[in-house]
Amino acid sequence: MLIKSLPLWLAIALTGCAVGPDYSRPVVEMPGAWQAGAVAPAVAADVNVAPDWWKSFNDPVLDQLVDEALAYNRNLAQAAARVEEARAQAGIARANLAPQLSANAGYQRGRTSADSAAGSQVSDARTANGALSWELDLWGKLRRANEAALANLAASEYNRDATRLSVAATVAQTYFQLRSFDTQLDITRRTLVSREESLRINKRRFEGGVTSELTYRQAEAEAASARAAVPSLEQSVIQSENALAILLGRSPRALVDSKVARGSELEALQVPVNIPSGLPSELLMRRPDVQAAEQQLKAANARIGVARAAYFPSIGLTGLLGSQSAALDTLFSGPTRTWSFVGNLAMPIFDWGKTGAGVDAASAQQKQALAAYELAIQSAFGETLDALSFTRTARDRQAALFTQLQALQESLRLARLRYDNGYSSYLEVLDSERGSYQAELQLVSARLDQLQASVNLYKALGGGWNAPAQH
């Protein structure tokens, strides 16, 4: 009977309405592009996010480090595990839509009391049953729950992609910071060698009565200043190496025993070209964090339907088909067969506002998710505008500092020439040395800022961009 009526109940369940609002993407006012100039629809469609954007810096060692981090980073491993959990939860929600079939078998032996009317009797009972149960989804509660689970799965996948992007960007920036400290340490060590040589000359001149003690002590102070800067930079190098090794997911033993490889010098790293003019705003909507926020909004929207479905009756069907016999050899014979069919309807009558409060809570969660989605879009545009501006200003600052360094190095050459010929005091040489040394460090810092800005721009764009194909 249950099997014969199953197609009818299935048709009723599948044609039932689904309470709660259907999802539609919120309307957000966005510019057509972030830079001046219109973008043709064909161009916008060709723009894609480059998955291996770090290769644009043209450093094979950086490529290897990022690949290692993407394989072994623990934060990324956690994100991947959360995707597996969400996939399993989606499987549970999907399974709840279908009838559930179960089987059981049992054996019972008992003795009745001798004081009973029939007297003391010993009985055996053997049972084997198959049960089919199904909750009819007339109001869409299970379908909305399945919709929410699928959206949660998509959100976890996007969050994993966002973590992947963050790990790759942090590895690149930490690597650039390490190469910056390497360069500053090299400059400081060269400066220390030069100042110690100057100290040696001035000491000899002082002892020979050629120069004053003031000049000698000034040279001694400058050498000590450079000497003190070396261990500080060495410590910065060690800290950057350790931070990078942790990002790479290396074991405690590897943290102690292995070293972080170096590739190109900081000034030799290739800074990516400027982004094409007029990239579409749609590119930012592909950012994994924005996509994750939208999927979380979809899930919250679907959970409103789950909560509203509690107002309506819940209908469950259960069918039992089996056999019961006192002897095992007759358990599956015709006379021992048993069957039952149960229809169950449950509906809240008065629950002190519990169901309404559940709907209100789901609606409030949907509002939170909507605000989070809108905030993710605002943050995406804000980060992109900041990155675009910083990329330009970092490039301009580096060009100005390079000009300054050239001028200071020439000034130092002339100051030394004037001092050696007795036309000026040693103070002019000291001022020029300090200025040249600081300009070199500032130029390294500006170069680092430019590289970091490029990484921030790639990250803000959700990974980068590919120029449209030329036809």
UniProtKB/TrEMBL annotation:
Q: What is its main location?
A: membrane
What Pfam family does this protein match (any one)?
OEP
Which GO terms label this protein's molecular function in UniProt? Answer: efflux transmembrane transporter activity
Membrane topology, as annotated? Lipid-anchor
Name its cellular compartments: Cell membrane
Q: Which Gene3D superfamilies match?
A: Outer membrane efflux proteins (OEP) (2.20.200.10)
Keywords of this protein's UniProt record, alphabetized?
Coiled coil, Lipoprotein, Membrane, Palmitate, Transmembrane, Transmembrane beta strand
**One GO cellular component from the entry?**
plasma membrane
Give the coiled coil ranges.
62-96
NCBIfam families cross-referenced by the UniProt entry:
outer_NodT
UniProt family annotation? Belongs to the outer membrane factor (OMF) (TC 1.B.17) family.
PANTHER family annotated for this entry? BLR4455 PROTEIN, OUTER MEMBRANE CATION EFFLUX PROTEIN
- What protein is this chain from? Efflux transporter outer membrane subunit
The protein's organism comes out as: Craterilacuibacter sinensis
